[in-house]
Amino acid sequence: xxxxxxxxxxxxxxxxxxxxxxxxxxxxxxxxxxxxxxxxxxxxxxxxxxxxxxxxxxxxxxxxxxxxxxxxxxxxxxxxxxxxxxxxxxxxxxxxxxxxxxxxxxxxxxxxxxxxxxxxxxxxxxxxxxxxxxxxxxxxxxxxxxxxxxxxxxxxxxxxxxxxxxxxxxxxxxxxxxxxxxxxxxxxxxxxxxxxxxxxxxxxxxxxxxxxxxxxxxxxxxxxxxxxxxxxxxxxx
Length: 237
Fold this sequence. Notes:
It is a single chain. With 237 residues, the chain is mostly helical. The chain has 12 helices and 2 strands. The protein has a two-stranded antiparallel sheet. The radius of gyration is 16 Å and the shape is globular.
């Protein structure tokens, strides 16, 4: 993949998942896909961002970020194998998508956490770690739009994949896309540690600090309540 559109997951996808799946719940029956089955990039860039995320994020959020990587790769490999991007680009997006919720950042800005997080990621990748500009911008855009859920328009491939994977981990959405044994294995490696209550509290904190926050677009009560009532992940919390 020498084309940056392919390498860094810029190709446009429909934002509405039912359009993407043509009204179906899945493209094929999900199969078990373990952590051991899944490539985890170990490039210098990926390793640097992994260590950065491990230091900057609470353990609960770091584990969520890793689960989002493995669930997303299962969705990609099994449901949408035609999607093009490097695993490194998707891993960077997963590791940094919630960086704006870290204690040192959530109250450091008036901006919604997704947008500020995208700026932090862009600066880290392009200015400090010398990532290709097209890659850094793809990661930043996906972070900024990872809660931009809707029924019209388009989104990048990386942006849509992290939407699907975060909705799956946070709310149990699109449960037919990932096999139950995949959940068991991923949560064994990266335990949830009561993630549902942890993330619901973060949503409420963001909304209290910033009543204009983009998170409110998902429902000021509906979103945190939906996270708390994640029945799919309840056995693992």
